Amino acid sequence: MNKKVRVGIIGCGRISVMHLLPAVNLGQSELVCVCDIKRDRADACAKKYSVKAYYDYKEMIAKEQLDVVHICLPHHIHVEVSVYAMEHGVNVLSEKPMAINYESAVKAVETAKRCGVFYGVILQCRYNDSAKLVKKAVDSGKLGKIIGARSTLTWWRPEDVYYLTSDWKGTWDKAGGGVVLDQAIHSIDLVNWIVGSSVKELSCHLSSRAHKSIDVEDTAEGCITYQNGVRYVFYCTNNYTCNEPIEIRLHCEKGSVVMDYDNAVIKYEDGTIEEVHALEHEEIEGGKDYWGFQHDKQIENFYNACLGIEPLHISGVEALKTHKLIFDIYKIGMKAENCF
């Protein structure tokens, strides 16, 4: 491939490794530069990947004639930096969440359309083999109509390690939310994507049960009814003592589904079974198991879209569907009696 997109990474924190490696290794891209306001972090990253370090993203965008920037920043500045890049003609791939509220996410989507650039949001779990198998079975009609869905997430985020070492996590004004927005967004997104309908009714409850230093919720539960009749119940918490695999179940007319991020088993009423189980993956240095291994597939699709090779799978418009649901959960949940 002759044409390559010129790539810059904005934000050199923990999640950036999931963007740096594809930018370096994929044939469609050339990693040109990295940026972080923490100079030592930017310098170390630039040295490791033999690229130029910047400490001001505006200077980087002005000087480097980039095709793509990846946004790997604290949640509250995702939109600010994304909009600036778009308005300077640069395609943007942002880590989740899109924004810390719904209105800002809409602004980002509208800016991308106005500026004629690609805007993608990382929801990498849609590329898991388990998710693809179930989505195909639902869309093909093999499972019939979905009647009910449920998701459970029981993870652990130690207060002293995860929250107190951060200057933004656990806050409304910078993180935008807690377990719903930061962790359960992926399981909620998978169900929302597989169901493929708009929300009719929603009731939910948010609470902070065990983390005393944070402002946001560490536990949430709710019931969602979609326009197509599907009832979806969810539960998520950061208060368990370890990170258990998430579980998603679907009750369908012609069968049932049990899945997590790596595995899926579909049992049809005629007795047939379809299943997929993740192969062992080479560990990503600096990566986390719960990030999965599919960033590279979504990033490759984004680069291909920028090069005109294939359509963009998860655009800002597409990601906005789940983002709206997340912030409807916050709007309704915060009004619930005895919330917090």
Can you describe this structure?
The chain is of the alpha/beta class. Helices cover 33% and strands 24% of the residues. The protein is built from 11 helices and 14 strands. The strands form 2 sheets. The chain has an 8-stranded mixed beta sheet with strand order 8-9-10-7-11-12-13-14, with helices on one face. The longest helix has 18 residues. The protein is globular and about 60 Å long. The mean pLDDT is 95.
Question: What key attributes describe this structure?
Answer:
alpha/beta, six-stranded parallel β-sheet, 33% helix, globular
Oligomerization state: single chain
Q: Would you list the SSEs in sequence order as H and E?
A: EHEHEHEHEHEHEHHHEEEEEEEHH
The DSSP helix count reads 11
Strand order of the largest sheet: 8-9-10-7-11-12-13-14
β-strand percent reads: 15-25%
What is the CA-based Rg, rounded?
A: 20 Å
Helix content: 25-40%
Q: How widely separated are the two ends?
A: 54 Å
| Biggest sheet overview | 8 strands, mixed
